[in-house]
Amino acid sequence: MQGQDNSLENPEYYQNRELSWLDFNARVVEEADDPTNPLLEQLKFLAIGSSNLDEFYKVRVAGLQDQLKMGVSEPDTKKQWTPKKQLQEITRKNQKQVRRQYALFEKKKKELENYAISFTTIDALSEADKERAKGLFKYEIDPAITPYGIDAYRPFPHLTDGVLHLFVRLEKSGKPFIAIVPVPQRLNRLFSLKKDGEILLLFSEDMIYSFLSDLFKGYKVTYSFTFRITRNADLEIQEEGAEDLLSVIEDYLEKRKNGMAVRLEVDNRSTSQSVEKDIAYLKKELSIKQRDIYYLNGPIDLTCLHEAVDILEDAGLSLSFEAFDPFYPQVYENQSVYSLAADQDLFFHHPFDSFKPIIQFIEQAVEDDRTVAIKQTLYRVSQDSPLVRALENAAKKGIQVTVLVELKARFDEANNVHWARKLEEAGAHILYGVKGLKTHSKATLVIKKEKRGFRRYAHLGTGNYNEQTAKLYTDMGLITADKEITQDVFDFFNYLSGYNEQPPYHYLHVSPFDIRDAFIENIEKEITLHRRYGNGHIIAKMNSLTDKMMLLKLYEASQAGVKIELIVRGICCLIPGIPGVSENITVRSVIGRFLEHSRVYYFNHNGEENLYLSSADMMTRNMIQRVEIAFPVLDEKWKRHIISILKMYLYDNVKAWILRADGLYEKTEPDGRKPIHAQKELMHLERSLVTSTKRSVLQRIRSFVTKRTQ
């Protein structure tokens, strides 16, 4: 790279956000080919890859298409690509990745045959099994099917986002006809037949295809194929002048069902006939571009593999991860969370630590007559949330309950509208967020009237108040009674609920803007101290890294010689290892059984060691378009513990991918070294110490890191 432009604005120094996301999804899909994952778990990763891609098209690709339609040609701030260029590059990369995904599905099908499991079609069945399948069709599918003919009296039907449809060519008396058959979403996608110890799996659309003549009596079915469309879900919520945001959100949800089509997927296996004229017809009706059409060598929408896993697990196949019970110390059975938090901060690393104490934090407050008020932010909660039920009970008991329910949490809007109404009916005071911003913070405050006066207790975390996702996502949090931090949380809630300017916090950093300003200040301090002492070190763990100001500041720190170790699960617009720019930066992505979701930011500061946990990634939307919190870890023992966990991830050589200077990711291998699988080791340490204290656990983690990395 001799003679290159050393200006940090050089587009060659950056990854495009959308392509970096596609690289992340490719890493997810590759978990389907990792032998350290049981076979059914490999199927789940293929399903997750499809689910991820659906949302990517509904939001990110849809947004770029909107820009193109409106004539926007302004390039992105990093790669300097126009919307048109980005859409072209997305198509080029994603077409290749989708082919890889379906090749892996074919490979997994062959591996399943070793366990007498077959994905099959009606044509491949014996005559006796065909009759059994016809019975399934007659009683489980046919009553729910509504075919739609298309002619002068029957217009082209509305095609629902994400629903499978069969395009059917018919003939009668020499005249051609067209029909479309939707596959109802609430039907089972997969049906199983058991035969002599073998499990046969049939797709619902294949069964409909095989019995189409039963739906069109008197007509000859010439041919048919399955297709699906994805619609734009990136619609703008008009908050300006809204007197009732709840009603605005409900109207928005209705409109989203009818968003413009942004992708057309076609199952290319089902007919040997040329379907180009039919695709041209669909393109015209849907106003879709050729670049957004995907011809798939397999069933559309591999999220159905979750259903396949459920069927196979119910059949008793032991091809999934061993069940894991999070660490729940006996002390929480014997003492209240509040008596423990009164003496020391309590740290939690989910899912290795149970989420139950967080639920107890609310439930025990409701049961305590000394509780005066409970305040909480809710971004994504479960369908049957025990936390929301506890808040309802609190309001009914006369406790002052203030809940910020973020109605704009994408794809959780309907669930949040439901809970907002329930809490309101119970007597809670509901806030709907901040105008123009999403409130993504994870904070709870409990105020009690104790013998010595009022005392506050707070929980701050990196993840949602959702006991279900807490079993699947790695997140960190603290329960504290520290007077200054709880005062900060108190001021934060008053800022949200009243007419207040941002207060001067003791310890919290709250976006918009303040988190980015605080991190820039910490990086600048690290540069200054490194020039004096030569020991500059930054470790940052996050979901995504896209903010241009943060990228520039990290490059500046690298140029000053600061060692920077980044653990970025998803999008990373920074390129490490560029001589003279980023040679002191390393980037790794850990993809495993649990979704890495915690955000941790460490600055050495010549041994002073500032450590923050946050709900925010280093993304522009988090830094300036959301209400987020970054909070310090003040307790030295927990600080040491979290740093040890970070080191475990930095030494992972089983599930980590390393980002190279050429912008490509490379899977790590032990290569004769001791295998270090961070998530697995954390699970093992917690499982082996179920009867131990938390202090014992953190001592074991530190000891493990020391031994494994020597």
Automatic annotation (TrEMBL):
It holds the Pfam family PP_kinase_C. GO terms for molecular function: ATP binding; metal ion binding; polyphosphate kinase activity. It is an enzyme of class 2 (transferase). SUPFAM superfamilies: Phospholipase D/nuclease, PHP14-like, PPK N-terminal domain-like. One of its GO terms (biological process) is polyphosphate biosynthetic process. Its cofactor is Mg(2+). ATP binds at residues 52, 473, 569, 597. Keywords: ATP-binding, Kinase, Magnesium, Metal-binding, Nucleotide-binding, Phosphoprotein, Transferase. It catalyses: [phosphate](n) + ATP = [phosphate](n+1) + ADP. The keyword tRNA-binding does not apply. Residues 337-501, 508-679 form the Polyphosphate kinase C-terminal domain. Residues 129-306 form the Polyphosphate kinase middle domain. Residues 14-119 form the Polyphosphate kinase N-terminal domain. The active site is at 440 (phosphohistidine intermediate). GO terms for cellular component: polyphosphate kinase complex. An intermediate of this reaction is the autophosphorylated ppk in which a phosphate is covalently linked to a histidine residue through a N-P bond. Mg(2+) binds at residues 380, 410. Belongs to the polyphosphate kinase 1 (PPK1) family. HAMAP family: Polyphosphate_kinase. Catalyzes the reversible transfer of the terminal phosphate of ATP to form a long-chain polyphosphate (polyP). This is Polyphosphate kinase. It comes from Alkalibacterium subtropicum.
